Amino acid sequence: MKKRIAIIWGGDSSEYDVSRKSGMGIYSFFDKEKYDCRLVCLKKGEWYVEPNLPIDKNDFSYMEDGVKKGFDYAYITIHGTPGENGYLQGYFELIGMPYSTCSVLVEALTYDKFVLNNYLRQFGVSVAESILVRKGEEQNLTEQSVKETVGFPCFVKPAADGSSFGVSKVNEWKDMQAALDKAFAQSDMVMIEAMLEGMEISQGVYKVQGSKEVVFPATEVVSENDFFDYDAKYNGQVTEITPARLPQEVADRVAKITSAIYDILHAHGIIRVDYIIKNPQSPDAKIFMLEINTTPGMTPTSFIPQQVRAAGLDIGEVLAEIVES
Question: Which of 38, 93, 100, 268 is the most buried (most CB within 10 A)?
């Protein structure tokens, strides 16, 4: 019998619509001769197999034509809570359901950008300087502390949310409060991060336990906007070049860091690591990690499918390897 795969999209964050597109993308990629795939929407209290079959949360089963059916595997493609912060992974651990992403701890760690940066810094990964601001404590922030720690211009972003909403570039102190308000609308914790100038790239990787490592060709991101914001990411205001225009030596260094980060985190499934590279054409290029996506976008035009094609691989076979591992 075919394995039944739940492709889980939705969530409770601002990236709900993006998640739906990723879910539909993943559904189109899976080999239907090998897998029985069903789209499953999670949205606050409503969990259902599309189009309208309610999920029993006790065991993640559903009734169809009078027959109780379950799943063999959960492919999570929720961007933001509860699929990218460990909540959903904890539920699947409790009911014994195999799933596609990292563990509860790793999901929680990568979801909090400030904690992640300081964790990886201990392993020699270069990251931007940053300040954490909790909601209600904005009055403790001063212009002098921002200047001394991160400088201007800087970026203000939600510390615990996706990377598409609530992000502002702040050039002067007078614009800080508006940027904080925008970020606090997405998260109760906000990170003020030093601006890094250079080439922005994104690189995917997955590993099959004990047998295989695949680091995809990196994608170079050239935004038409001031930075890689929502419009650049989802409304076409960007040029994406895969493989990135990097000297081979620098490309190899980035791939090595990407692989090392995967191992440091004990990651699972496909993750995507975003970087800024200072002086990218120089052998002395400085490589800074920006953030990690454990449920990266999976529409046909997203970074990962682009990189899979550039590597000469088949996305359906890649997904099958992840499920079978």
Answer: 100
